[in-house]
Amino acid sequence: MATMTQTVRQPQIRQTQCFIGGNWVPAVSGKTFETINPATEEVITQVAEGDAADVNLAVEAARNALENGPWGKMDARDRGRLMYKLADLIEEESEELAALESLDNGKPIREARAGDLPFVIDVLRYYAGYADKIHGQTIPVRGPYFCYSRREPVGVAGQIIPWNFPMLMAAW
C-alpha cells in the first residue's frame, strides 16, 4: 500500500480578531482563546473570543451598512458583480485558504483543495448569478384579488459554526 504525502506551505495567520463594521477589532470582553492544530496539538494562535456583545455590535453594524451604506442602495447586478469578484479572489488564494482550513480543523489538504474551496466558490458564483433574479410570483386565488409573493432579505444572523466546513457554512 502506497502512502502519498503532500507538502503544504505553512499558511500565514493574518487576522485573529472579530470583523465588525469593516474593521478587525478585539472582542468586547478582551478575551481570547487558543486555536489548536488537531494534528500536533500545538497552539496555532490566540483568537478573539466573541460573545453576545460582539454579535450585537456586528448585527448593529450590518443593519447600519444595509440601511446607510452602498450595498442597500446598489443595483442587484452590481451586487452580483461584487460576489463574482469575491469568488474570483477566493479562487486566486485557494491554496493559502485550503492550507488554513487544513491547519485549523485537521482535514486532509486534498479535501480542502478538492471540496471545501471549490464548493465555496461555486456557492458564491451561483448566488452572484441569482442576485438580479430574485422575484416574487403571482398566486392564483379565488375572487377579485391580487395575491403575490415578494422575496426579500429579512435580517442578520450571528452563527456559531461547529462543523469542519467554516468557509462553506459562511458562504451558505
Structural summary, described in words:
45% of the residues lie in helices and 10% in strands. With 172 residues, it is mainly alpha-helical. The mean pLDDT is 89.
pLDDT below 50 for ≥5 consecutive residues: which ranges? none
Main beta sheet: strand number and arrangement? 2 strands, antiparallel
Average pLDDT rating: 89
- Helix-and-strand structural type: mainly alpha
Span between N and C termini?
Answer: 38 Å
**β-sheet strand percentage:** 5-15%
Give the topology, please.
Elements: E1 18-20, E2 23-25, E3 32-36, E4 43-48, H1 52-68, H2 70-73, H3 76-92, H4 94-105, H5 109-130, H6 166-171
Antiparallel strand pairs: 1-2, 3-4
Task: Summarize it.
With 172 residues, the chain is mainly alpha-helical.
Keywords:
two-stranded antiparallel ribbon, globular, two-stranded antiparallel sheet, 6 helices, single chain, 172 residues, 4 strands, mainly alpha
